[in-house]
Structures are given as structure tokens and as C-alpha cells.
Amino acid sequence: MPKTDVPPRWDRTMRQRLARGEAAALGELYDRFASLVRGLAHRVVGDEHAADAVTREVFAHVWEHPNSYDPAQEPLRTWLAALTGRLAVRRLRTTKTAALARGGPGTAEDLERTVRHASVAARADYIVQSMPAPLRAALELAYFQRRNYRQTAADLGVTDDEARRRLRLGLQLLATAHDTGAPDAPPGIGGAA
């Protein structure tokens, strides 16, 4: 079953609760988004322990700086995806740089290539999390459940033409993940970060 967008009212209320220092709000936020944050972090850093550390860092940042999120700008889900991408890419760069300094395998060019690849992956994840729910649902059905456009249409209860349109638009948006100069790119995502 596809996920639905978090209502903007919930986002505003959550920010207010966090700004008041309600620990229960952080727990609720964690319960709702921890698997998303951890999955995005793992995709970038490629390591269980590092993904756990990034997840802790993301939620610590939210707790310490609740007003850094502006519900008028974007949904909380999207903001968390962008924050996770930035922090995961930064951790990857720091870890790989330290390994090179200790004489680990690879070169500075390998490091930059790895970071660029991770940045594109983080941007792709950000794009998917930013998509309207109907586009995201169509892509999730087609990709994760291996549905063709007809099966996707049936699962979503839309026409074949609408399913094709959603899939095409979603794929066009994803294709911009390599476009490091995209005007809607979140800070620190894309390119060499």
C-alpha cells in the first residue's frame, strides 16, 4: 500500500510541539520517519553503523533546532530527506577522507567520485520524497513491486493513460538527479557537495 503525504497541519503542529520542547513530539516524529531517514542514510553511506549515526544526528538536529524547519517551504518529510542527504554525504566525505589520510585504499579522485555518486543518490531520494503522493505511489508500485503501467493503473484505481502519465512525470523528475544546477536542488545535495 503506498504511503500518503503527511498533512501540512500535522507538520506545523509538530514543529510547534518540538519548539516547546515536547519529548513526546520527538518520539512521535521518530516513530513516523526513522525508517525513512535510516534508509536514506544507508543508501548514501552504505554502512549500518554509519546509517544509525546519521539517523541519530538528524533527530538530534531536529530536537536542537526545531525552528530550522519551515512548514511554509516544504513538507516535513521532504525537509527530513534533504537534511538526511546533507548529513550523510558529509559523514561519507569525512569517513573516506580520514581513511585516505591513514593510508587506506584509493585516491582523492576516487573519494570525489564516491561522494559525487552518493550526492546523486541523495538527490534522487530527495526528489522521490518531494514528489506528490500520486507520482510517488506510481513509481513505488512500478519499481518495488515490479508492476507494469496497467497493473499500476489497476492498483491505483486510475486509467492506463493516467498511470503512464504519472510514471513518465516521476521518471522525468528522477532524471534531474544528475542535474547539479537544478533550481529546486536543496542545499548540499547534488554535485560534489
Secondary structure elements and their pairing?
Elements: H1 8-19, H2 23-45, H3 48-64, H4 76-101, H5 108-130, H6 133-144, H7 149-156, H8 160-175
Helix pairs in contact: 2-3, 2-4, 2-5, 3-4, 4-5, 6-7, 6-8, 7-8
Provide an overview of this structure.
The protein is flat. Helices cover 71% and strands 0% of the residues. α6 packs across α7 (149-156) and α6 packs across α8. Mean pLDDT is 85; it is low at 181-193. By secondary structure, it is mainly α. It starts with 7 loop residues before the first helix and ends in an 18-residue tail after the last helix. The protein contains eight helices and no strands. The chain has helices at residues 8-19, 23-45, 48-64, 76-101, 108-130, 133-144, 149-156, 160-175.
Kindly summarize this structure in a few lines.
The chain is built from eight helices and no strands. By secondary structure, it is mainly alpha-helical.
Average pLDDT level: 85
Query: Strand pairing plus helix content: what structural class?
Result: mainly alpha
Order of helices and strands: HHHHHHHH
Shape: flat
Q: Roughly what fraction of the amino acids lie in strands?
A: under 5%
Radius of gyration: 18 Å
Low-confidence stretches: 181-193
Give the helix proportion (percent range). Answer: over 70%
Biggest sheet features: none
Number of helices: 8
Which features does this protein show?
193 residues, mainly alpha, single chain, disordered C terminus, 8 helices, 71% helix
